[in-house]
Write a structure and sequence with these properties.
- This protein has 349 residues and is mostly beta strands.
- It is built from 1 helix and 31 strands.
- The strands form 8 sheets. An 8-stranded mixed sheet has the order 25-26-27-28-10-31-30-29.
- A hairpin with a 4-residue loop joins strand 26 and strand 27.
- It is elongated, with a radius of gyration of 23 Å.
Length: 349
């Protein structure tokens, strides 16, 4: 795994993604010629796609697909060069549709595209420490007009709160119905968007009044975890390695990226915040923050936050979760579920 195994330990103690490519479909009349395929590739590479004609059929043409998107077609058994540059990280599910003797047959296989970026180990400096409500099972944390907002989880205990982070004084709070487990929040276009965990339901509030204006149903069969935005689109997580991109006007998913640190995908990415065209994300059950390129999904930096644990005194404190960026102070605020403290930090290499 090259020379950054220690970063994997910090980030995740991660479960490595499965090595080896998916085997050819042996029931097909044709199979992929994968004798020279590697299990893992990076975006600068390409591979030659071709099929084996073990039954000596007279082939008219072959159409190649990747993740059900057509790559191109070739006459007879000519091969096609597949350039990986513009493909998203993760599994590339390859398919060849072979036309022969007035019939067609499919062959399938897959390879995995991984990140070629070596993450930078970042460090943090604690600027200030503030009180944090130990009853807050923190799921979302975000600044709006220099005021901190927090969304919490647990059925019957979930709320959306606007408060003074320096004193803990609550300005306004909206309690969720007991059926909902609150999750991430984000502010965009004068609205607050809030996710719920397994209800597949989101809420849209007026940012000034916190009045509920609309609820919506996820258009994908996913859970709701973290949330942030880039000023135009919303980004959200679903407990997997995916970061989804959503249109805030329609609440429809546009696309997603898979998050990879080197050769390994990063599952259970959680709370998100957009900082300087990157996404900072908590990794569930890990005292670490990954800095992700939102266009590619590559982890570019890792923050080891385990040093904060010695300052947290609540014996019932759970995992690190909650990242907010204050553009006024240009500092980052971090806390955790049921933590008694919130930390204002700066980050550097």
């Amino acid at each position: 795994m090259k020379n950054y195994n220690f970063l994997f330990i910090i980030l995740l103690g991660i479960t490595l993604s499965n090595c080896g490519s998916k085997k050819n479909d042996v029931n097909s009349t044709f199979t992929f010629d994968d004798s020279k395929f590697k299990a893992k590739y990076v975006s600068e590479e390409s591979l030659e796609l071709g099929v084996l004609n073990t039954n000596a059929k007279e082939v008219d043409s072959v159409v190649f697909f990747n993740n059900d998107i057509k790559l191109g077609s070739k006459k007879e058994l000519d091969k096609l060069v597949f350039n990986l540059k513009d493909q998203k990280l993760g599994y590339q599910n390859l398919k060849a549709v072979v036309y022969f003797d007035g019939e067609s047959s499919e062959a399938t296989t897959r390879i995995e595209l991984v990140s070629n970026v070596t993450p930078t180990l970042l460090k943090y400096t604690i600027v200030n420490t503030y009180p944090h409500d130990t009853a807050s099972f923190t799921e979302g944390l975000e600044f709006y007009k220099d005021t901190l907002y927090e969304s919490t989880g647990l059925n019957g205990k979930s709320f959306l709160r606007k408060y003074d982070y320096k004193t803990g004084k609550i300005f306004k709070q909206v309690d969720l119905d007991a059926q909902y487990f609150g999750e991430g929040i984000t502010f965009i276009n004068g609205k607050i968007y809030q996710l719920t965990w397994q209800n597949k339901t989101g809420f849209i509030y007026n940012a000034q009044t916190l009045k509920l204006e609309k609820s919506f149903t996820y258009d994908q069969d996913i859970e709701g975890w973290g949330m942030t935005n880039d000023g135009k689109y919303i980004y959200q997580t679903d407990k997997t390695e995916k970061i989804w991109k959503m249109d805030p006007e329609t609440q429809k998913m546009i696309s997603y990226v898979n998050v990879y640190s080197g050769e390994s995908k990063i599952p259970s990415i959680n709370e998100l915040v957009w900082i300087n065209n990157t996404i900072y994300t908590n990794v569930w059950q890990k005292d670490a923050i990954a800095v992700v390129n939102p266009a590619t999904g590559s982890v570019e930096g890792i923050l080891d936050m385990s040093g904060l644990r010695k300052f947290v005194k609540n014996p019932e404190a759970e995992v690190l979760n909650g990242i907010a960026y204050n553009p006024k102070t240009k500092t980052i605020f971090v806390t955790g579920k049921n933590w008694d403290k919130m930390f204002e930090i700066t980050v550097s290499e």
